Amino acid sequence: MDPVEELRRRGGVARVATLRDAGVSEHALRLSKQSGGIRTVRPGWVALPDADPRVVGAAARGVVLSCVTVAERSGLWVPTASALHVAARPHAARVRVPPQVVVHWSKPVVARPPDALVDDLPNALALIARCQPLETALVIWESALNKGLVHASRLRQLELPSGARRILEMARPFADSGLETIFVHRLRWLDVRMLPQAWVLDRRVDVLIGARLVVQIDGGHHVGAQRTRDISHDAQLTLHGYHVLRFSYEQIVDRWHEVQAVVMEAIAQGKHLW
User: Fold this and answer.
1) pLDDT tens-place string over residues 116-137
2) Rg (CA), the chain
């Protein structure tokens, strides 16, 4: 069996023992190393020359990629760029990593297989709950639920740390973007019903407050034909008695006080009530 092909099938990095179990001979491994087709990154681990350098680095240091790094690799909505985060066994010796790398010594919620170099998403979410501010963690958890990468019913059956269980009880799968999660989370104190991705007049709206106050949040994709459809829907909502507030990414992220003031005044005027 060709060790290069087998290694590529496994993501470019693997244990030698795993390759041997798959039928790769010691002779074939030695020839591939001599030809430069594969390289040793740590005793017992080999990689392809073009393998993901972050995964190779994890193998070289005996850790796994985890926390927000796994969230980013999974395509989840992560509010800000973060340093590389890895996880090590709870009683592992000191891990030699660059100073900008964050190391989590922790017992995983779901056992890590010997070949794992990228953490299971439930393990990453548990670390995110401990590592990140509450709002950031909630954004990432709701993104994972919305994309169907995890399910609340499964997570409830795991022995989650208290911080992770708190976020699980708060998180909902309805928010279509992190901006919606941020908006609803920051206004929870109002004690008014807020429903992300509510179905109104044959289309979803970002947030429905009460019975008829619609909040639309413009991300970077609200241009061209998308923008035209949004404006047309706003007009139909208004004609049917709804009140529409539209905010931009910049307003939500950088000028939140203005957004909150407008929403508070709209509610004070009863715009959310029929």
Assistant:
1) 999 999 999 999 999 999 999 9
2) 24
pLDDT tens digits along 161-191: 999 999 999 999 999 899 999 999 999 999 8
Residue 87's SS3 state is strand
pTM for this model (two decimals): 0.90
Q: Are 129 and 68 in contact (CB under 8 A)?
A: no
Strands 102-105 and 85-88: parallel
Alpha carbons 88 and 104: distance in angstroms, whole number: 6
Which residues have CB under 8 Å from 215's CB, separation 6+?
183, 205, 206, 207, 208, 209, 244, 245, 246, 247, 263
1 Cβ neighbours under 8 A, 6+ residues apart: 22, 23, 24, 25, 28
Closest to 209 in 3D by CA, of 180, 234, 233, 235: 180
pLDDT digits (tens, 9 = 90+) for 48-93: 999 999 999 999 999 999 999 999 999 999 988 789 999 998 877 7
- Containing 79, the helix (H) or strand (E) segment is none
